[in-house]
Amino acid sequence: MKTKGAVGRIYGEATSTEFNFVVFDPREVRRTDYVKVWNDVEGWVIAQVLEVKATADLSGADVLEGRDAERELCIAKATVIGRRDDEGMLRVPKTPFVPGESVFKAEEDFIIDVLGLKREGAYIGFLQDTDIKVKLDVNSLVQKHCCILAKTGSGKSYTAGVIVEELLEMDVPLLIIDPHGEYSSLKYPNDDEFDLEKMKYFGVRPKGYDNVLVYVPPGSPFAEIADGVLKLDGKNLSAEELIELAGITGNSSQALVYQAVKNLKKRGSYTVEDVISEVEGIKHNAKWTVLGSLEKIAEVGLFDDSPTPVQLLLQKGKAVVLDMRGIPPEHQDLIVSKICNELFELRKLGEVPPGMIVLEEAHNFIPERGFGKSVSTSVLRTIASEGRKFGLGLMVISQRPARVDKNVISQCNTQIILRVTNPNDINAIKKGVEGITAEMVDEIKRLPPGTAMVVSPELEKPVIVEVRVRRSRHGGVAVSVVEGSVENKPKRSLWRKSKRDSGDESEKAEKAETGKRKILKTRVKSRAKPEELKEVKPKGESEEPGEVESEKLENKKSENKKTSGKRNILRKMFGV
Ligand SMILES: Nc1ncnc2c1ncn2[C@@H]1O[C@H](COP(=O)(O)OP(=O)(O)O)[C@@H](O)[C@H]1O
Ligand SMILES: [Mg+2]
After folding, report:
1. Domain holding 375: CATH number?
2. 152 CB less than 6 Å from ligand 1?
3. How far apart are CA 566 and CA 573, in angstroms?
4. Ligand 1 proximity of 525 Cβ (cutoff 6 Å)
5. Angle at which helices 251-267 and 272-280 pack, to 10 degrees?
6. Is the CB of 149 under 6 A from ligand 1?
7. Which tens digits make up the pLDDT trace of 450-490?
8. For residue 389, what is the enclosing H or E element?
9. Whether 208 and 330 share a structural domain
């Protein structure tokens, strides 16, 4: 006999941490769902469904002979999370669950409590398949760093945009290092038709942020539309910075620069001209090539006698976007190195408020050993390890987790992982994310676009989040070189009725009308352009050639699957 409200009943062997249960209605229990069950010692506890299996009393021969099953059984495997005691500590049962005990859907408040979700904080979306808003603790997010990792097109920049919006709402000062010019669109309200459709579901409204300032480096093709040009102070460049900027190769040439800088440092502040005269004074055959290269630094035009005060880059209630489109990578690297060094120093002195540096394409600035060198690495590593002491946080974003310094990734308290499939990147995540299990890794490979796994020590378990729609416009849309391709944009984000939504049409319509989110599930479809349209791919977005091909194929396959799934849903709904 079924207990009222129960979705299943425990059967077979059960331990204190795991049990299997027979599912009464397969539409009601799905993988990753939260259920509650009674434990004789602890009382009600929460468990999460790891897998749901269907079996039937059919042998291979039965199937071949076309016989139908008489009995079908759906069995779910659940792992126990526990309950909170009066002191708020998580308690995991030590006595086994009793076979025959009923399994129920867990109430939202109970889930929030046991998982350790916050009721206040940065709202990033819904806990998958629920109405529960996932809010991240802002202090921990900012001060203790966070990372967003996923393959291209999974929604990293979009998710970063969502977090930036939340931080802007809370007046957190932000500096956004933006190699592809994706973040200046924060200034404008989101007007994407598909996104607009989902706003009610997520409970947000379109909004442009007028407290966003866009700066560009000198020489940027976008200087005219920017709010300001960032002029750097050319004083006291480190030997590494000079070497990178001047493109000096060869050990003896580089040694000359180190020598000159070492001499100058003893005397205090120095300019590039001082370095040049210092090198001139050194007796060495290599000095002429070095001098030639150093002379070129002035031509770069990055430096100015009246530099932009770095304080402007981190201001209360403002986000400064440093749009580096069209700037050579070695200049980007130097710019990041210089401003981060200065900001960190100013922060230590309390001359800029506590805030966060958002770093897109982080693998270019903090590469893992063996994946290139970068002059900004050292300061970024320092911020990752010491920033929290001084209130300077990092948001590290990358599509190549394997190529980002693992130490930096493991310093990130909040880790947001969207879909990753590349085995090297998966391995990097296994190394950088503490306590990650094989099941979680499988889950990461399957995440649909716009869906993230959030891992944080403040959460009892990693949670899967349907990332909310953005209030402001997302700027990360690839540019097509073929005119008119915007019209060719494939339709995105159809409302998908979930399997749970099996009621009659009028009930469905009514539920949709009243905005009952539970029965609706969004599907975020990548805005990828059709294959035949060539895209301008921003530098750094590229992956190994083999990988790109296989990803394309994979996308195509999943796209086909999605379309046929969509067709089936439509068929069911309208009987076509
Ligand atoms: N949470 C989301 N809601 C709606 N659309 C999304 C979401 N996440 C991603 N997208 C869509 O997917 C596309 C790719 O996301 P983007 O963040 O630019 O990818 P990347 O991981 O390469 O930075 C976006 O242009 C957007 O249309
Ligand atoms: Mg991106």
Report:
1. 3.40.50.300
2. yes
3. 10
4. no
5. 110
6. no
7. 999 999 988 988 999 999 999 999 996 654 455 444 433 33
8. helix 377-390
9. yes
